[in-house]
Amino acid sequence: MFAEYTLVELIWIGLAILMLSMSKGGFPVGSIALPLLILVWPDQATSARSAVAFMLPVLCAMDVVALLVYRRHVQWRRLIRLWPATLVGVAIGSLLFVSDESALIALSDRALKLCIGILGLCFVLYHAARKWIFAHLTEATQPGWTASSAFGVGAGLTSTLAHAAGPLIQMYLLPQKLPKLQFAGTLAAYFFALNLVKILPFAVLGRIETRNLALGGALLPLVPLGVGLGYLLVRLMKSRHYTGFIYGVLFVTSLILIVKAILA
Fold first, then answer.
1. Total number of domains in the chain
2. For residue range 247-261, what is the model confidence (pLDDT) as tens digits?
3. In terms of C-beta density within 10 A (0-12 exposed, 13-18 middle, 19 or more buried), how is residue 159 classed?
4. Of 14-28, 78-92, 144-158, which gets the smallest average pLDDT?
């Protein structure tokens, strides 16, 4: 069934799914998965688009599990202001995701790699600035419609192009000072709904392929293993050690993507 993939490629793809699952278990390595997947994807001519599309059904399956776990803690009303603009962001991202060279605003795969590499570096910068953000939060406030719209468009766009809306939604929710479980539950609910919305444009664009669905389905048993491993590692490793390691790897893989995109 997977004759077109080498054993090494299958191992790396499985490792990417394992990383995504570990992030659901609390060990934040999910941001490394997409840059890594692009670097090892068999067809390098369309590796960015193919890797992003491959990840979507897998993420949807993981989102279902996360939402079931946190369903009692979701604060749906916190997300109402995000949704209209999020749909606009998904629409813009879908137009940019078109691979037809005749389309006026389509991104080439090379440009998409560059964007994903830059977003990876932004993840690292956000992590570095997060302590400062926390220190300057005084009281709980919910962003107004203008700010919410900006966050929504940005999240819809970056999620459609690179599944990279995490930092934006975290920055949207942080000022609201939700308790830990409510924060995690509301985050899980947003991405569950967002990834479901993305399925339609991805399917219309022909990016969800049967062979990738079969591969993702075959590797789904790695999900509970990754969640359990992530849960265990969070408790065994000191926070500063594992976060430093993760963002160091993300920095390197993002730089490699940027260099490959520029030199291609």
1. 1
2. 777 788 788 878 877
3. buried
4. 14-28
Q: Which helix (H) or strand (E) holds 20?
A: helix 7-24
Q: Measured between alpha carbons, how far is 248 from 250 in angstroms, rounded to an integer?
A: 5
For residue 120, being part of any structural domain is answered with yes
**Distance separating alpha carbons of residues 22 and 163, to the nearest angstrom:** 16
Q: Which range marks the domain in which residue 119 is found?
A: 7-263
34 close to 10: Cβ distance less than 8 angstroms: no
Residue 1 maps to a domain: no
Q: What's the Cα-to-Cα distance from 64 to each of 45, 69, 83, 239, 263, rounded to whole Å?
A: 32, 9, 19, 27, 39
Q: What are the tens digits of pLDDT across the range 223-235?
A: 888 888 877 776 6
Q: Is residue 2 part of a domain?
A: no
Residue 145 lies in a domain: yes
* pLDDT tens per residue, range 63-99: 888 888 888 989 999 999 999 999 999 999 998 876 5
Predicted pLDDT at 198: 96
